[in-house]
Amino acid sequence: MTLDKKITLCENLTPVEVRIGNYIMNHKETILNCTIQDLEKEVFVSKSAIHRFCKKIGLNGFNDLKIELAKEEKMEEETGLMRMCLSMRRITQRKLPTN
């Protein structure tokens, strides 16, 4: 299950946790390169709130969250490359009109 789905399907989030989830879903690239302290300052929440949020969505903590995001990003890159390869294959397999 994707991180977005985990966040969206979690029903018992507090308003603070909803804010954390929204920030994460809208700033994935930023999260990959930030520390828990950076997120804490950016979203105006405590480290404890971030940790509780991670636990509620089934992760062990902020580092697990970053690992999940990195895995999803890699999967998206690989999917994009596969689509590009398939498109190139279709293009090269097309028969050119003969004159």
Which parts are unreliable, with pLDDT below 50 for 5 consecutive residues or more?
none
Give the radius of gyration. Answer: 19 Å
H/E element string? HHHHHH
Number of helices: 6
Could you say which overall geometry the principal axes of the C-alpha atoms support? Answer: elongated
Class per helix and strand makeup: mainly alpha
Q: How much β-strand is present in the residues?
A: under 5%
> Largest sheet at a glance?
none
Fraction of residues in helix: over 70%
Calculate the mean pLDDT score and round it: 88
The rounded distance between the terminal residues' Cα atoms is 52 Å
Beta strand count: 0
Please provide a written account of the structure.
The radius of gyration is 19 Å and the shape is elongated. 14% of the residues are buried. The model has no long low-confidence stretch (mean pLDDT 88). The protein starts with a helix and ends in a 6-residue tail after the last helix. The protein is an all-alpha fold. The protein has six helices and no strands. Helices cover 75% and strands 0% of the residues. The longest helix has 32 residues, at 62-93.
